[in-house]
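User: quick one, fold this
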Amino acid sequence: MKKKIKEYFYVSCESTEKHRVGNPDCNVEWCGIDGYPKRCKCGGLIHADFGDENEDCEYWLYEKCDRCGGNFEEVEK
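Assistant:
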């Protein structure tokens, strides 16, 4: 039996749109902004969705690698 290869994934459980696995030109949610998707050390791509913002306009993002999941480490330039 052939194993189905994942083509799309959600960055977080709150995501409403799917990111395409392996797409360096992804522009879903936060991708296409702030340099996302970024290259992960595992060879995958780190995609991002907006998380939340506080009163001081500080925000955080959900990030997820399309290859290794949440256990990613960005490649330093």
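User: anything notable?
Assistant: The CA atoms of residues 17 and 64 lie 14 Å apart.
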